[in-house]
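Data availability (excerpt). The following record was deposited with the supplementary files.
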Amino acid sequence: VGRSVSPNGIEAFRWTAEGGMVGLGDLPGRDFFSEATGVSADGSVIVGSTKSTNGHSINGSEAFIWDSESGMRSVREILIENGVDLTGWTLLGATGISANGNVLVGNGKNPAGKFEGWRASFTGEGDFGGDGDVDGQDLLAWQRNRSIGTLSSWRFSFGRRYSFFSRFFGR
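Predicted structure:
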């Protein structure tokens, strides 16, 4: 993954054995620019940054997530649609993704205007049963087999399908 020059402009891409270098496009309604910076282990989910004109960016940068089914989507919009309160947050870019494609990390500006790292879970890190919800069944699964994850990941995500966590790292 990375970025390259395409007929449209600077474009995020992925490489596949079947198709070689394949452009990922851009978020609609924005200036055309995208850059891929992270990929899941199987290559099915890709994250990065794109230019944005939606008022929730700094220097035109906004975090995206891409998969072949849904194409490129705004991380911010997905989280808000799923009940995560991002009031005052600017998600500048997604810089990495877990091997299974469920957890993203990136950088942004918090409501106080400080640069800060963030982490978003798209299916609940504590979803040990794999049913899309983090609930009591997952705690029971963890108690039966503690090698499947950590109690802290279950506690963090309990009752949520999507979650957002940040840690101040700059000025």
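Summary of structural features: The mean pLDDT is 81.
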